[in-house]
Amino acid sequence: MEAAQASWGVVIVAAGRGTRMGTKESKQYLLLQDKPVIVHTLERFEAMDEIREMLLVVGPDDTDRVSTLVREYKLRKVKAVLAGGSERQHSVRIGLQSVSEGLEWVMIHDGVRPLVTAEAVRSCMAQAAKTDAAVLAVPVKDTIKQVGEAGVIVATPERRSLWAIQTPQAFRRSLLLEAHEKAAANGFVGTDDAMVVERLGKPVTVAEGDYTNIKITTPEDLPWAEFLLATRANTQLGR
Ligand SMILES: Nc1ccn([C@@H]2O[C@H](COP(=O)(O)OP(=O)(O)OP(=O)(O)O)[C@@H](O)[C@H]2O)c(=O)n1
Ligand SMILES: C[C@](O)(CO)[C@H](O)COP(=O)(O)O
Fold first, then answer.
1. Residue closest to 127 by CA, chosen among 193, 205, 49
2. Number of the ligand closest to the Cα of 221
3. Any residues with Cβ below 6 Å from ligand 2, and which?
4. If you write DSSP's letter for every residue of 59-110 in order, what string do you get?
5. Of the residues 36, 176, 185, 223, which has the maximum number of CB atoms within 10 A of its CB?
6. Ligand nearest to the backbone CA of 19
């Protein structure tokens, strides 16, 4: 059976503080079209037949309020609401350890990427089925420079080889678990899940996604997300 047709577990990480957003309320609870960002994200996966369960990882003080949201919005695939860790990678590991053992495949997704489409998720799952490890990504449009001390440019990597990495990131569950356990044992902390698998020397491939799968990070992302949601509501795109 193709992995894209099998049952998947999804770890949704939403335990961050949203420092760059700078709001009193953490960004995953800000409203888009009158609904919390995290609920938009969960609804995307709830609606997909391929998904069997979701593990939702939130701030230690937020488990009760989020459990209430899960009930209110009838998010039946949420198997557990777990207290996260101090770094994204710690939160991922906590969720990953609670994915049902019978599931062969798992995806990790940022709770603050509410605009991901089912089409993009399926493309990532299909790529992981071929290579055991795949991430959604888009080719960068700008020229990227590495900048050193005193703002001096030290390198200009060839743009054709540069991709902006998104989530979901999809893996054979046993591979990702092994990678996270090794990273924890060695004290390695990366900024995405591909990095912990790359450290094992295993290939991680990219599935081309789309530029609308934004991570809500800074204040200007909010009106952009509102616009994209409104556009989709009008055109039925991204469903
Ligand atoms: N200890 C952490 C840190 C981050 N995340 C989650 O990882 C995702 C991507 O992280 P990012 O956008 O950096 O979120 P924050 O850490 O909240 O933002 P900032 O870096 O601006 O504080 C978010 O859904 C965030 O909630 C998490 O679950 N646990
Ligand atoms: C996983 C990620 O969303 C891929 O772009 C990103 O690396 C998260 O990084 P952040 O530092 O937590 O924003």
1. 205
2. 1
3. 88, 110, 165-167, 191-192, 215
4. -TT-HHHHHHHHHHTT-TTEEEEEE--SSHHHHHHHHHTTS-TT--EEEEEE
5. 176
6. 1
Give dist(CA 28, CA 26) in Å, integer: 6
Q: How many angstroms is it from 88 CA to the middle of ligand 1?
A: 6
Q: What HEC string does 147-175 produce?
A: ECHHHCEEECCCHHHCEEEEEEEEEEHHH
- Kindly give, in sequence order, each residue whose CB lies less than 8 Å from that of residue 118, ignoring residues fewer than 6 positions away: 44, 47, 48, 238, 239
Query: 234 in helix, strand or coil?
Result: helix
Q: At what angle do helices 88-96 and 173-186 cross, to 10 degrees?
A: 130
Entry field: residues in the chain: 239
The CATH architecture to which 3-232 belongs is Alpha-Beta Complex (3.90)
pTM of the model: 0.96
What ipTM describes this predicted complex? 0.98
Residue with tokens 């996966």: 45
DSSP state of 4: G
Q: Which two tokens stand for residue 49?
A: 């037949």
**What is the domain partition of the chain in residue ranges?**
3-232
Pocket test for ligand 2, best of 112, 215, 216 (most atoms within 8 A of CB): 215
